[in-house]
Amino acid sequence: MTSTTPTASVASTPTPPAPAYTYQAGGRRDPFKSLLVAVTRGTGSGTAPPLPIVIKELKDILVSDVTVKGVLQNGNTYLAMVQGPNGKTYVAHVGDSLRNGTIRSITPQGMVIVQNINDPLTTQSQREVRKLLRSFEEAK
User: Fold this and answer.
1) In Å, how far are 7, 16, 85, 99, 112 from 10, measured between CA atoms?
2) What are phi and psi of 87, to 5 degrees?
3) pLDDT tens digits, residue range 40-76?
4) Three-class secondary structure assignment of 24-39
5) What digits encode the pLDDT tens for the residues 68-103?
């Protein structure tokens, strides 16, 4: 008696792998890249923490870090005494530059600074910031 066992001759054809997804920018930004860009100084590999910025002059101070401590009058012009985050006091004139802005005007009440905006989510490139001699809480 001859026994035949049926052999399953199923043709195993390998399925092709799914194509890898690639992002086609088409002039748009990559949605997976962070909008916040870390600012590093020096020639490092980018893995070291950024070096602290040394404040030597008024131009090294951010607009948000400036505090008006006094206003002086010299003839028809006004000068502002401003304090930086390092506790030092600087004399500011109209037209002086800060790290991210320029002093537009100085009045007896304070000063107006044009701040440069580096934000990809807004269409504005500049805004006016008023730094008053006395804050609203002190006036009460």
Assistant:
1) 9, 18, 77, 73, 82
2) 90, -5
3) 555 555 555 666 678 889 999 999 999 999 999 989 9
4) CCCCCCCCCCCCCCCC
5) 999 999 899 999 999 999 899 999 999 999 999 999
How many C-beta neighbours within 10 Å does residue 6 have? 5
* Domain 58-135 coded CATH 3.30.365.10: no
Helix (H, G, I), strand (E, B) or coil at 22: coil
> Is the Cβ–Cβ distance between 92 and 80 less than 8 Å?
yes
Q: What is the DSSP letter of 136?
A: H
pLDDT tens string 4-25: 655 555 566 777 787 787 777 7
Residue appearing with tokens 């010299």: 74
